[in-house]
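User: two proteins, same treatment. go.

Assistant:
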Amino acid sequence: MADYLTDIVAYHRRRAALDDESFTSLLAGLDAIEPRPSLRSALLASAGLGVVAEFKRRSPSKGWFVEPETDVATRVSAYERAGAVAVSVLTDTPHFGGTLADLERAAQHVELPIVRKDFIVDARELLRARRAGASAVLLIAAALQPEEVASLAGVAHDVGLEVLLEIHELSELELAELAAADVVGVNQRDLTSFRVDTDRARRVLAALPPGAARLAESGVRGPDDLAGLVGFDGVLIGEACMRARDPYATVRALVERGASVHQDLRHHESV
């Protein structure tokens, strides 16, 4: 069985080791860049289940979802018009076909919070995300050591980024406190095999920390799949949005169904 996560993280660690751009040079002038809207606030303010619509060109297990030259600006603008609460942009190049330029272009065309979704192992990538217009960055618990989670999250917060900590198992929840995570995402996709377990989010939900926004990731093929995610603040949807011939209509249907999903009575305190 292919171990996608190990291979992808190994690539990013090799790439970071060859990166000769200094942290100091990337930090220069960063505080003059206006911050993006808050992902956490957008999720907690959503009346139902907020939709975070993703732009990713391909995946290692399923190949290309769209033509390689598909314009990110056109698609994320459709997401925004359809009522998505935020946008996620996948910036990994060799495995997902994305670039940091995709995120930068998205930031120029929408007012929504934007998540940089990548396999971040180096603090310089946080600074690049902030420069490109990200509101938040993804940190993947399964890809990092606890001390790396704490260090990267600290840098992210220092430079004005929110942290979306992605977990897959209950054993990874202790890292949410280390990261002071603004959003905790439960990925229903196993990143070693890329298979989806649609019950994973429900199993982990009750144990999620009350201070963070709660985001379900992966496994949503259409509006009917949202009913099982009561108690989450939002859902991140990638493949269904990218395969859609009419991204506006697809996201609009998801948004309307998400609005009718009532939150759990134990919903944590909103902002």
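Protein 2:
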Amino acid sequence: MKKSLLLFLMVILNWQGTLVTKTDVYLCNSSGGKKYHYLKNCRGLSNCKAQIIKVSLQKAQTLDKELCGWED
């Protein structure tokens, strides 16, 4: 019984973890943009004068972008 319950909890926790994993983020496509954002309508993107683009989290990190301070 304990093993079954433990296995069930592990499956649920792993499943929930995959739901909250973000794979795509948003960037202001300008030379001065230094942050990435999980939400396209993030307050940190409100001053973006260029196009807001969607990229993978890995790509944003490769470009040395950091998570926006409004979303951490």
